[in-house]
Specification:
Elements lengths: L2 H6 L2 H15 L2 H8 L6 H11 L3 E5 L7 H14 L2 E6 L2 H15 L4 E4 L4 E2 L5 E5 H10 L7 E6 L11 H10 L5 E6 L5 H12 L2 E5 L7 E8 L17 E5 L18 H9 L2 E2 L28 E2 L4 H10 L5 E4 L3 H13 L7 H14 L5 H6 L2 H9 L2 E4 L5 H12 L5 E4 L13 E4 L3 E3 L4 E3 L2 H8 L11 E6 L6 H9 L13 H20 L3 H30 L7 H35 L5 E5 L6 E7 L12 E4 L4 E3 L10 E5 L11 H18 L20 H12 L8 H28 L2 H16 L2 E3 L42 E3 L1 H6 L7 H10 L7 H12 L19 H22 L13 H8 L4 H5 L6 H21 L3 H14 L2 H4 L4
Length: 995
């Protein structure tokens, strides 16, 4: 027995250990453990211990690892110590889900819910809310913040989101110092950097990172079967089989594949043998009996055939055969998801038992009981319920919320076996599966097809493997054209991605900060943002690089020293000469191009033209001189000697063109008729033959003298160069090489210095430009503009959930009282209304209110015009709606006025170098107006491409903005109209809420 063992077994050591266990058993964490039905993982233990010790925590762990347990412990601490806890989430669906979980555990009386369209028990000690609601509370100074002890920010990596990310940073920065913050994030590669920032702005923060998945994830590729056997279950559908193969070679640990893991040789062989087809569906290489031309099998780069992608129902069949269901099947298209369900139904796929089918039908009918029968037909209820009964469903943002929630419930209960989903399913809501399938590794990002990033792949496949149910999870990529297994292995092995801030000041943020702390203090606050923190850290690296450049420049300067004179001066002369020669050459090129364009513009039909050089060199006859309004000048249509009809461009004739003769082009000439082209080409050759007689063909123009030869400035510089003392140095060219290196590095150095200056204080500079716009529009004014302000007497009325009260406070007296701070700026009466507008187009809304462009509208028209500030169509095609009331009615006039306001705001933003306010979109005007006047869902959606789920989602966003107008509008009449518009919209399927 060693001394260490003896020491550990000593009475003193045993007594100390017993005291430690006794002490630990009396902690809040011990109480929390006793209510759990599973043991805590190490990372959960460490995070909870730090939280009980009074520190903030950042927990970064994979999807499904159990991060939310730490958030639930914060709730436990709040209830145990008599303090409040706010649990924030990025989306309403996740808020609803978390509310249900916490209410089951702690009782409905202790838990509340606040989202944009739902308010339940807002004064409860534990409130679940969307992050925007908490941000609004902070700016409004809500009394609901009194006694707040803990804030859980679930999915905090959302702060990288371009549109909504800034809200997370606003909350983190503005929360009271005595509030403990629990930040729950996906695994990111710079968690320590994010933790350092939290430490700076929030105080003592413990960073807990876990990269271990609780359920190991296996990577597979599913390829079309080359030779389905008769015993294959897919034999009834020959050629539609699918084989599931591991991605990595057999000796690779899938949980830790390392860098560049070797690929499964069986997979590579399957790729070579996979059945192929061409664009017209013909059999290709890999099909038995196929031969290329001449009986040879074509090479993969010459055949034009690609590997056949397994059909969607055969993929589901293969997963079912290998016991890999339930599965989430990601298809980056709504139409693709619906099409996949239809294909499975058509193929006769059935994945449920009779008992499961009966339960599914019961749940679906119960969930949709409140929807009128006539609306069920419009919503495609019968096809939807039939697909559910067979264990197959779609899930995407275009679905009605009640449909999506029904799918989520049935899938979570294991009744639905496969869900075809868009990537939105990967964000937030809890729907774990045994397997996750990706149909492609390319997606449409709204403007182009882009590759799935490692971070996106990690998030999408993170749902594979149900903790406590599955021993392992499975990520399956379906073979498709262009799939590279090496690229896939790179995606699958890179589990981390960096968290980048998207923070930027908004107009609402600016007026609220100026109102609360003044401009100078507001700049200081914004300098503490994660965006500036990252920029400053980047500056450190840039500054080191600039320092290295400076040292190198000194060395280069020393190396080019000449004993005959100042070689730097001589080198500068050489650079000026080079630059002057380049300028003269460009000017000559522009002049020559202008001459070519002028020659093109003089062409007429029937001109026989010589093109001396370029890819169209030769003789042509002009058929149509073309239009000279284009950027590249005219593009005449011509006929060549070999009867080809071409478009002649300036680039085709860099040396210009010459008219050498003319031929007659018949008025009825049709270039599509070969005989007419042949006859005209014959006339062209005859005309050129006549020119071959002596003296008939025009001579070529003499080449012009170079502009550099006559340039006085260039001659002066060259004379100075020859007269410089260093010109005669025998080591001149050696010095010149060092001088050239110095010049190149100096250019890089200057660019680097400008980057450093641009990053330093970049957020504050953006804030200054934002304030300048608000100053120009009158939402802010200089503190000395109207004398010294009186004592604080103005506050924004808010109710318990942070929303503004229905009636605005009295504006009597100086509306800027209490809004003056030692920053030189104060919020005006107009700015006071802007403080209440949190929508993305906050300034546009404020300007429309201030100018009264919506003042005379009724409730349906107000809802319709507000939709243009909210809605963003999925396509860029312009719309031309038949505006209710006609082109000269109140709504049409209001729409025109709103567009004019938007245009003026955009011009102002452009002048101040700010990102422009989003464009208006009138694609929802008619639908919203119809719904607000009481039309049926069928009448609203008939003739439009708007999906029912999209319509409901956009209506709720319109309601959210109308709710803000109800508290921010400067006149009682408009506030009443906004309230009426909310009531008109919030009916039927739009009014549905799952809580």
């Amino acid at each position: 027995m060693t001394a260490a063992d003896t020491s550990a077994d000593s009475p003193a050591a045993r007594y100390a250990a017993a005291r430690a266990r006794q002490s630990a058993s009396r902690t809040r964490l011990a109480e929390f453990r006793r209510v759990l039905d599973f043991p805590l993982d190490d990372f959960q233990e460490r995070a909870c211990e730090a939280l009980e010790e009074g520190r903030g925590v950042l927990v970064a762990a994979p999807t499904g690892a159990g991060k939310t347990v730490v958030g639930e412990f914060a709730v436990h601490l709040a209830l145990a110590t008599g303090r409040k806890a706010f649990y924030t989430t990025p989306i309403k669906a996740l808020s609803n889900q978390k509310y249900a979980d916490l209410a089951r555990r702690h009782g409905a009386d202790n838990v509340g819910l606040l989202t944009g369209d739902t308010t339940l028990n807002g004064d409860a000690p534990v409130v679940v809310m969307t992050t925007e609601v908490l941000r609004n509370m902070l700016y409004a100074g809500s009394t609901a913040l009194d006694g707040l002890g803990y804030v859980v920010m679930d999915e905090v990596h959302y702060l990288a989101d371009r549109f909504r990310g800034p809200v997370w940073e606003e909350v983190i920065i503005h929360l009271s110092d005595d509030v403990q913050l629990v930040s729950l994030s996906a695994t990111v590669s710079n968690a320590e950097e994010f933790g350092d920032w939290l430490e700076m702005v929030r105080g003592d923060t413990t960073v807990v990172v876990s990269e271990r998945r609780p359920v190991p994830l296996w990577q597979h590729v599913l390829v079309a079967s080359a030779n389905p056997t008769g015993a294959d279950r897919h034999a009834a559908r020959p050629g539609f089989g699918a084989d599931l193969l591991d991605l990595y070679a057999g000796h690779v640990d899938p949980t830790d594949p390392g860098v560049n893991p070797p690929i499964n040789p069986d997979l590579l062989a399957a790729f070579r043998a996979a059945p192929r087809s061409g664009p017209d569906g013909r059999r290709g290489a890999g099909d038995r009996g196929y031969r290329g031309r001449g009986g040879r099998r074509p090479g993969p780069d010459r055949s034009g055939f690609t590997r056949r992608t397994p059909s969607r129902f055969s993929v589901v069949d293969a997963l079912d055969e290998d016991a890999l269901l339930p599965a989430i099947y990601f298809i980056f298209s709504r139409a693709g998801c619906e099409g996949a369900v239809t294909q499975c139904l058509t193929a006769g796929l059935r994945l449920t038992s009779a008992e499961e089918e009966a339960e599914i039908r019961r749940v679906a009918e119960e969930r949709t009981a409140t929807i009128p029968t006539e609306d069920l037909d419009v919503l495609g209820y019968w096809t939807w319920s039939e697909s559910l009964a067979r264990g197959v469903a779609a899930h995407h943002a275009g679905m009605l919320p009640v449909f999506k929630e029904t799918v989520e419930e049935l899938f979570s209960r294991g009744l639905i076996k496969v869900v075809f989903a868009t990537e939105t399913l990967a964000l937030g809501i809890n729907m774990p599966a045994r397997s996750v399938v990706l149909e492609r590794l390319v997606k449409w990002d709204g403007s182009a097809h882009v590759d799935v990033t490692p971070g996106e792949y990690t998030q999408l496949t993170g749902r594979a493997g149900r903790r406590g149910i599955d021993v392992e999870g499975h990520a399956v990529v379906v073979d498709h054209a262009g799939l590279d297994p090496v690229q896939l292995a790179g995606l699958a092995s890179k589990r981390l991605y960096p968290l980048r801030s998207s923070f930027r000041p908004t107009y609402n943020m600016a007026v609220n900060l100026v109102a609360q702390v003044g401009r100078d203090r507001a700049r200081d606050v914004l300098e503490t943002s994660f965006a500036q923190f990252q920029a400053d850290r980047g500056v450190v690296g840039l500054a080191k690089q600039a320092q290295a450049h400076a040292e190198a420049l000194d060395g280069y300067a020393q190396a080019m020293t000449c004993d005959r004179g100042d070689f730097a001066q001589y080198a500068a002369l050489r650079r000026r000469i080079t630059q002057r020669e380049s300028d003269l050459s460009r000017a000559a090129s522009r002049s020559r191009r202008a001459e070519v364009v002028a020659a093109f513009e003089r062409l007429r039909p029937g001109d026989v033209v010589e093109v001396p050089s370029g890819r169209r060199a030769g003789y042509v006859v002009v058929l149509d001189p073309g239009d000279g309004a284009g950027f590249d000048g005219p593009r005449p249509t011509v006929l060549t000697q070999d009867r080809a009809v071409k478009k002649l461009t300036v680039a085709d004739a860099p040396g210009g063109v010459r008219v050498v003769t003319r031929v007659k082009v018949p008025k009825a000439f049709n270039p599509r008729v070969p005989a007419q082209r042949r006859d005209l080409a014959s006339s062209l050759r005859n005309a050129l033959g006549a020119l071959d007689e002596p003296g008939s063909r025009p001579g070529r123009a003499a080449r012009g003298r170079s502009g550099a030869a006559d340039d006085a400035e260039l001659a002066r510089l060259r004379a100075q160069l020859r007269a410089h003392p260093c010109h005669g140095c025998p080591d001149r060219e050696d010095h010149a090489r060092w001088a050239e290196r110095w010049a190149r590095l100096k250019k890089e150095h200057d660019q680097l210095v400008r980057r450093v200056e641009g990053r330093t204080g970049s957020i504050a500079k953006l804030f200054d430009r934002t304030c300048d716009v608000l100053l120009e529009l009158g939402y802010l004014e200089r503190a000395d503009a109207r004398g010294t302000a009186g004592p604080a007497s103005l506050a924004i009325a808010v109710d318990g959930d942070g929303d503004t009260a229905d009636e605005a406070p009295d504006t009597g007296g100086d509306a800027t009282d209490g809004l003056v701070h030692a920053g030189g700026l104060r919020v005006t009466a107009d700015g006071r209304w802007l403080r209440r507008l949190y929508a993305e187009n906050d300034l546009l809304l404020a300007e429309c209110l201030r100018r009264g462009v919506w003042e005379d509208l009724d409730a349906p028209a107000l809802a319709a015009v507000v939709s243009t500030c909210v809605y963003s169509g999925r396509r860029d095609e312009p719309t031309d709606p038949n505006v209710p009331g006609g082109p000269h009615g109140p709504l049409a006039r209001a729409l025109d006025a709103t567009v004019r306001v938007w245009s003026e705001v955009e011009d102002l933003e452009s002048a101040h170098r700010l990102e422009a306010t989003g464009q208006l979109d009138d694609g929802l005007v008619v639908a919203v107006h119809r719904w607000a006047v009481g039309r049926s869902l069928d009448a609203v959606l008939r003739g439009s491409e708007i999906a029912a789920g999209d319509f409901v989602r956009w209506c709720k966003q319109v309601i959210d903005v109308l709710d803000q107008l109800a508290g921010a509008a400067p006149t009682p009449a408009l506030r009443r109209t906004a309230v009426q518009a909310i009531d008109r919209l919030r009916r039927g399927v739009v009014a549905y809420s799952s809580v």
